[in-house]
Amino acid sequence: MRNVDLARLFDRQAKRYDLRGQKDERRVTPLVRIRKMLLAKASGRVLEAAVGAGANFPHYPALVHVTAVDISPEMVARARQAAERHRVTAEFYVEDLERMEFPEDAFDTVVSTLSLCGYADPVDMLRKFRRWCRPQGRILLLEHGAASFAPLRLLQHGIDPLQVRKVGCHANRDILAIARAADLRMLREERKFLGALYVIEAEP
Fold first, then answer.
1. Which domains does the chain have, with CATH numbers?
2. N or C: fewer beta carbons within 10 Å in the chain?
């Protein structure tokens, strides 16, 4: 899928993402609890990959400075509003992160939540995260992918081509295999929701 098509797909979904995120700001769901727990580990200069409509902004600790990137202008517009609501210091880029470059060791924390499903080369993207994150910094991942529950995994394989066309992301990526192929140093890994949600804390 061309990047311009991907941006348009996400533009069309921005309102729905935003409404869901604002609804989650008023309730505590299992996914909200997981976000909160993971993002408590963020500190200092933070790169947020594929910021979407800003669902993470309610959960960042005080005093972080977030560099937020997304390919979708509509997503970024809504993420700006979320950052303002939650008084998070942030700068925003409407860019294809796979084509961007930052200096080595530019960030103390790199955050990716539900974004590895969309990259053309997720292993290369994680290798970039490693370069951009300082030594002993943190790479925090909350990703959906291939389930450990076999019937669900088979369903994910079956719907994957349709999901890519309709919403721009893969349903069946093995996130642990991707993280290991990128040589992340895993500090913590956990799977939720029949193994379809991956929670990873790593060092570069």
1. 3-203 (3.40.50.150)
2. N
